[in-house]
Amino acid sequence: MKKLLTGNEAIARGAYEAGCLIASAYPGTPSTEILENISQYEEIHSQWSTNEKVALEVGCGASIAGARALVAMKHVGLNVAADPLFTIAYEGVNGGLVIITADEPGMHSSQNEQDNRLYAPHAKVAMVEPADSQECKDFIKEAFEISEKFDTPVLFRVTTRVCHSKGLVELGEREEIGVKEYVKDIRKYIMVPANAKVRHVEMEEERLPKLREYSNNTPLNRIEYKDKRIGIITSGISYYHAKEVFKDKASYLKIGFSYPLPDQLIREFANEVEKLYIIEENEPYIETFVKAMGIDCIGKEILPICGELSPEIIRKAILGEEKKESYSLDMEIPARPPTLCAGCPHRGIFYEVGKYKDKIIATSDIGCYTLGMAPPLGVGDTVICMGAGISAGIGFDRANRKANRDKKVFGFIGDSTFFHSGITGLIDGIYNGSNMVTVILDNRTTGMTGHQENPGTGKRVTGEEAPVIDIEGIVKAIGIKEENIRVIDPYKLDETKEAVKDAYEAEEPFVIIAKQPCALLKEVQRARRGLYCEVDQEKCRKCKVCLRIGCPAISFEDDVISIDRAQCNGCTICLQLCPFDSIELIGESR
Amino acid sequence: MANSLLLVGVGGQGTILVSRILSEGLVEAGYDVKMSEIHGMSQRGGSVTTQIKFGEKVYSPSIGEGEADLLVAFEKLEAARYISHLKKGGTLIVNDEEIYPLSVLTGNADYPDKVLDELVEQVDNVKVVEASRVAEELGEPRCQNIVILGSMVKVLGLENIDWIELIKKNLPERVHEVNIKAFERGLSQ
Q: What is the pLDDT of residues A427-466, one digit of tens each?
């Protein structure tokens, strides 16, 4: 049977068919749907882990115990998981271990576009790169085989256009592998220096040569000889972009097993074609290897390192063709960036902190609340990575003090991000005497990636009930004094304002926990469906105070302020701000 | 030669659902299909784009400037934003709907006047769909995406596929009736 599947759905299907038993992940675009889909298969234990390092360690343990395990994350997640990656590479596996890295050339929803193919040679782990949904499914099965055959974890590298593109996939049956026997082997699984020294030599002298041989012989790396005047070495989605442009007017070496690269195959191909191009997205990973072999080729001299590749870019770079004829309009088109939604619980706190904008530094973090930096709220000085909302704040605060700069630091972090890597930062702050303010925006979900459960929500990826990890309890246990903690409802501006004032004036570490569920959660939408705010046009003086909160439901057009009933969920932030009592809350919550 | 469709709109308008139904229909009709979407931050009122290519064999899912045979805009400003992707002589389906970006809502930018007039003047083949008006008449504002699906099916000449069945498969039962009506209204627009 053939089915239309995204790359992520196909990866999940492949894991199912391959007899995978354990899957762990942390949500992140474009990888999130992999675990969401795997969790639909009862045969596989699936879990959202607190962060990618934990997820990979769960996978390592499961593999050593004898189960086939899959771990999924976005590209930056692999940085978090790099620590176990480099050492499990030495230890190898028992049950197959496949680590998915979902890279994001073009950064549609990411803070950088690092090319994680470079991790494979660095960590010396085998790497597989599918180009479409069918390959996602087939290659996952092959990746588990490679992992077990060569005693290595396998890095499975996909990109946004592979993850989020749908293509037809031939479905197969699940093969039950079961859990392999576990035999205690401290020489292999305890990486103290004495054992690691031996394992490293074994990797270099035994495993990698075998993998190199496999790379030259596997059908994952294949040559398609057509017109030999142009030869193209390519991998992943770039293969299809190249095919779109050249079709049968070029020959291809399509690489699906990309570490170690197939040296003999590359040399053979290079000898057969007249002019050799390397077409790959982001870094010159294949190109550097080919050039180091002393083979002449063209790559990043004409193709960009930055951003996504497309047939259009390739056509222009290699064939010199200009853009196809099209239409254009001569008008200013206002941008449409993502914004905090109508009813977003982050709005109230950003509005109140925004009043101190000139007197504070705001170190923010990864999540919907990153959008607090956009005008008119404009709260945010830095965003780096998960957890840095707190830890970078500690450093900023120290530097401020050295400079006698009278600016209090407010760090912002979401609930899921706090569990991910905020707790360690908060401990660091207390331990080292920082007096920054930490604002934990607890919207009871992992918002930006589309509502995944987390340790604070009381549910698992499967929907089962789970213990609720209490953020306030953690904050207290870390050592924030009770009088320096405020748990507030950010829909209530008075309460929020007071907490922000106390925080600003505090001489000690201070934590605000803003608790209100995401407005887009289904149960919240259901409960607030009948609620909305309305402007009494008689009373409205058009002072535009309500426009300062940047709510997409409020508009000012033809000299009239109005609120879009369809978007408004009656959060009442605008109502509380209106100096003329001209906004009314209509309806009742269910 | 693959047929290239680019669907553009604003987060929350239901472009992805339409893309999914359309792709499934194309598969049933025996085409090779690739659909690629960019989402992530788009639920938060940003621009959303979906690219669908179908034909005997499809390679790249990407559609560049001047490469779309059909551009379907669920919102007028988005039609203007992506018009350069429509190939000369291609068809534009545009929903007569305005959704203001935040900068316009707060009075810091203007929603361009006469977007529709400009589009009609510039583009050779334009079909304006009043999907929001139809949806309102049907008493379900959210079914405007299915009105647009109807118009697309008409323009593409794909009426022979059982779209009603696919709509039923992809939507909860309580909204079947209104969406089937919406589809039929779109088809006759």
A: 999 999 999 999 999 999 999 898 999 999 999 999 999 9
Identical fold between A346-520 and A528-586? no
- With an 8 Å Cβ cutoff, is A288 touching chain B? no
> What's the DSSP call for residue A371?
G
Q: Where are the domains of chain A?
A: 2-217, 221-319, 346-520, 528-586
Interchain CB contact of A321 with B (< 8 Å): no
Total number of residues shown for chain A: 590
Structural class in CATH, domain A346-520: alpha beta
Report residue A516 as tokens.
């209100």
Measure in Å the smallest separation between the Cα of A275 and chain B Cα atoms: 23
Residues of A in contact with B64 (CB under 8 A): 310-313, 323-324
Q: Which residue on chain A is closest to B24 by alpha carbon?
A: A4
Fold classification of A2-217 is Rossmann fold (3.40.50)
Domain holding B20, by residue range, is 3-187
Q: CA distances (Å), B108 to each of A352, A526, A563, in order?
A: 22, 33, 17
pLDDT tens readout for residues B65-91:
999 999 999 999 999 999 999 999 999
* Regions in chain B scoring below 70 on pLDDT: 1-2, 39-44
B125: domain CATH number? 3.40.920.10
Cα(A231)–Cα(A270) distance, integer angstroms: 7
Q: Are strands B3-10 and B47-55 parallel, antiparallel or unpaired?
A: antiparallel
* Chain A contact for B28 (CB, 8 A cutoff): no
Per the CB < 8 Å rule, is A4 touching B103?
A: no
Q: What is the pLDDT of residues A130-155, one digit of tens each?
A: 999 999 999 999 999 999 999 999 99
For residue A539 the two structure tokens come to: 């009373």
What separation, in Å, do the N-terminal and C-terminal C-alpha atoms of chain B show? 28
What pLDDT is stored for residue A229 in this prediction?
Answer: 98
Count of the separate structural domains present in chain B:
1
Determine, for residues B60 and A241 on separate chains, whether the beta-carbon distance falls below 8 Å: yes
Instruction: For the domain made up of A528-586, give the CATH fold.
Output: Alpha-Beta Plaits (3.30.70)
- Class for domain A221-319, per CATH? alpha beta
> What pLDDT is recorded for position B76?
96
Q: A514: helix, coil or strand? A: strand
